[in-house]
Specification:
- The protein is of the alpha/beta class and about 300 residues long.
- The chain contains ten helices and 16 strands.
- The strands form four sheets. An eight-stranded parallel sheet has the order 3-16-15-10-9-8-7-4. Strands 5-6-14-11 form a four-stranded antiparallel sheet, with no helix packed on it.
- The longest helix has 15 residues.
- The chain starts with a strand and ends with a helix.
- The site of 3,4-dihydroxybenzoic acid has 16 residues, from loops.
Length: about 300
């Protein structure tokens, strides 16, 4: 039922963890059966260590969550030393998320990882972090820079290359087209939506950075509308992200045009949801006489 491939890599199911919500895997391995996922996508790693933004940097809102972590991470050299040994033990595909400020940051990080490890099946490139002034979003809002960065990275790896897109742009389709033209194997969408919350007692914004990224069920319709637009414009696979909470949500994303999906904010509530979701998708497929999950992809967009 779940005969799924991206490039030449097989996936046991279409569900991946969204970057940032499972750390590097090791932090959650007591809570979560990582092997149940089609792929584990790790928290963004950058060329050099980053402390991230000052607190408060996470805040729950109705139907979602605001975050402004600011790419806190240990930097690629420590990542290789401390995190790769654990990732090597995971019985699932591992995709490493990379963020950066300049083209060289992304390139050097990828090259270090290429040399240091064979475990990862690919990379997800964050060109859409909303919480750092120079956190990659300058690439994600420009078709030209997206294409240039994709090309640079493409020439340095044969592994899966996924560009992660921001919804906070004028035309997400144009950015997706640039990623495709630059040689990406897939795009993932959407990253968080710009959001803000206010403390009415102190009469101040709650997040230290004022504005952060909104995730969770609140953004699901926004994600679907963006995937619908991307699906009209490119041929490479789309990995859908945004407020998925159950198997019905996954099916909505597939019908809109996503071939894979990612679980993000929901992991904080139900870290083992993946097991029941995959069996419920199988039941839906049986009931609807769908033999291959790929047969669902884009049906609703074609019927629009
Ligand atoms: C962060 C937030 C994001 O939405 C993202 O894609 C990458 C990083 C962060 O604040 O760390």
């Amino acid at each position: 039922m779940f005969s799924l491939k991206l490039k030449d890599v097989e996936f046991k199911n279409p569900i991946m963890t969204a970057s940032g919500t499972f750390g590097y895997g090791d932090e959650v391995s007591d809570l979560v059966q990582l092997s149940k996922f089609g792929a584990i996508i790790t928290k963004s790693v950058t060329r050099f260590p980053r402390e991230g933004n000052p607190p408060p940097r996470i805040h729950e809102v109705s139907s979602g969550m605001l975050n402004s972590i600011g790419l806190a991470n240990l930097g690629v050299e420590k990542y290789v030393e401390n995190k790769i040994p654990f990732l090597n033990k995971i019985d699932s595909n591992v995709i490493i998320n990379i963020a950066g400020t300049k083209v060289e940051d992304y390139v050097e990080t990828l090259e270090i990882l290429e040399q240091a490890s064979d475990k990862q099946v690919g990379y997800e490139i964050n060109i859409s972090c909303p919480n750092v002034k120079e956190g990659g979003q300058q690439f994600g809002v420009s078709s030209k820079l997206t294409k240039e960065l994709t090309k640079e990275l493409r020439s340095r790896t044969k592994r899966i290359l996924i560009m992660k897109l921001s919804p906070n742009v004028t035309s997400i389709s144009e950015i997706a087209e640039s990623a495709e033209e630059g040689g990406a194997d897939a795009v993932s969408a959407i990253n968080t939506v710009s959001g803000m919350a206010v403390d009415i007692k102190n009469k101040k914004p709650i997040l230290s950075t004022t504005v952060g990224g909104l995730s969770g069920p609140a953004i699901k319709p926004i994600a679907l509308a963006n995937i619908y637009k991307i699906y009209q414009s490119i041929k490479i696979p789309i990995i859908g992200i945004g407020g998925i909470s159950n198997h019905r949500d996954v099916i909505e994303f597939l019908l809109t045009g996503a071939r894979f999906v990612q679980f993000g904010t929901i992991n904080y509530k139900f870290p083992n949801l993946v097991t029941s979701v995959t069996s419920n998708i199988e039941k839906y497929m049986e009931k609807n006489s769908i033999k291959q999950i790929n047969d669902l992809v884009g049906l609703a967009s074609k019927n629009a």
